[in-house]
Amino acid sequence: MSKYFNKRTKNLIPYVPGEQPKEGETFIKINTNECPYPPSPRVIDAICQSVNESLRLYPAPDASLARRAFADKYNLSLECVFAGNGSDEVLAFSFLAFFAKDKKVLIPDITYSFYTVYCDLCELECKQIPLKDDFTIDVDAFVREKGNVVIANPNAPTSLALDISDIERILNAHPDDVVIIDEAYVDFGGESCIGLVNKYDNLLVVQTLSKSRALAGMRVGFACGSKELVDGLNRIKDSFNSYTLDRLAIVAAEAALKDDEYYKSVIDKIVSTRESVKKELMELGFKVLDSRTNFLFISHKTKNAEDIMSYLRSKGVLVRHFKTNRIDNYLRVTIGTDEEMDKFLSLIKDME
Ligand SMILES: *Cc1c(COP(=O)(O)O)cnc(C)c1O
User: Hey, which of 87, 291, 320 would you mutate to test ligand 1's pocket, going by the most ligand atoms within 8 Å of its Cβ?
Assistant: First the structure.
């Protein structure tokens, strides 16, 4: 480790994203939960229209066009919406804004692994609350334990969703704590708790355009919550980088949020592919959790998950395997196009 690193840098265990193929490699990529379909044509059009000489100018520091579109879609006031460079940035800012050493951060033991990375980065104490044996979130434990709360709903990589009534129980048990609900996958069948934002000052809901809006490459995420919480996020942002969203990202986000019709058909398609792939996998001897996301979390009765992953990779198909306690015999498989999933299923069958 370099002598130039400070203590914080030395102690970090950085997040490792799923494999991104190198230039020239052609894989069927069902390992990072990207959308297999293109963004709305209106999004491409909006970006093209903005590729002009105005790029010499800084973008709007408050990204208000994008925030306005999000606020309108969910019936929120503009001041209750924050936008950032991907929801990862929004989450990092939230940890910086609301969490401190004197209070634990409660997260499920199996969840988006960036949460523990942010705890390390911000030097926070994190308490991982074990999922129940069926991999559902232990709501009673979250009600009982003291601390700020971060929950992905639906959860990743388990794909399972919590009911809003359970989230309300957690909110009511934590009136003096901030409760962050990460809804990266909510559009694929979860129930959003954005409707609770006006009722609970301590609720921050985080969403992204990377999954259901097919814009992982543009890096746009949102948070919504009370004006108080959004003010806190703005204090952090404006102490870090005035312009976190570039000009193209802002117009792309606005167009994406205004084209519900296009995205509804994309989401319907992914959900219908998900359900048919799920059925086939079960017939092939897989246990498949009840997904409310754009991926399936699966485990075979006899075959080893890491072996399946390596075999698929050798045949040009990437899926995600986590070498994590309790889930090391599971694979997370993103829902691709029907063609991609047929290829995946036929390889699995060949493995017999
Ligand atoms: C993909 C994902 C994110 C990050 O999304 P970006 O907006 O692309 O940064 C956040 N949370 C969860 C649970 C995710 O799966």
Answer: 87
